[in-house]
Amino acid sequence: MEGLNRAFLKLHYMREHPVFILWSTVYFVSFGKIQNEGQSAGNHMNNLGSSETTREAITLDYKKIFEGWLIGFAEGDGGFSIDKRGYLVFKVTQSSVDAQVLFYIKKELGFGSVTVQSKLNKTHQYRVRDKDNLLKIINIFNGKHIVTVRYVISQKDDVEFSKLLANLIDGYVTHIKSYDGYNTVVNFGKLNKILNYLHNYPLKTKKHVSYLRWLKVYHLVKDKKHLTESGIEIIKDKIKFINK
């Protein structure tokens, strides 16, 4: 079970950020009901109480999912460190192109600062230095910050994680001799789990644009456009721009 939890945490990091479509849907359903004519005050209050309970449950779920994402995201692009003056700092770094993710973290947590880290390298950072807010961050991470290496798609140091991830998404693991690493591979026909996951929890950074471009290629192949010469040319052209 710990291994699966670990895989889920890193999957959170790999897809970057959850957008809670279901949350907003439930929210508007709960508070958008039209009261029937002649409904008693008592019934109205009961419904209100029910709505309040629903709202609290949704808020707690939102917070839990955000914290789970933050742990995985920080394990890839940040963490705790000691600065030059000997003070504890929590920091998450991103390319300046994706600085909006850092502002999102600040907004959700309600504290911290976002600043330019390096004009030369074009990076921004989210940083927490004061004791009270560091304790809040520590309470979120306490007992859950369990991954010691940064994982992307290919793993050089931990084949066990690759196997767990492969099992989670109905894939398999291959060994790449050129750099002595492992790739987690998913067959085309078994991509639904990943697609559903990314549909429910869309990417937040510029990788979302790359994903949407890749998704167009996926649908072209799914529609068997790759079986014609003209279709292959269209696909090749779109592939060139996936990461542009």
From TrEMBL:
Name of the molecule in the record: Homing endonuclease LAGLIDADG domain-containing protein
Pfam families hit by this protein: LAGLIDADG_1
Domain Homing endonuclease LAGLIDADG residues, every copy: 70-151
Residues annotated as transmembrane: none
Gene Ontology terms: cellular component: mitochondrion
UniProt-recorded Gene Ontology molecular function terms: endonuclease activity
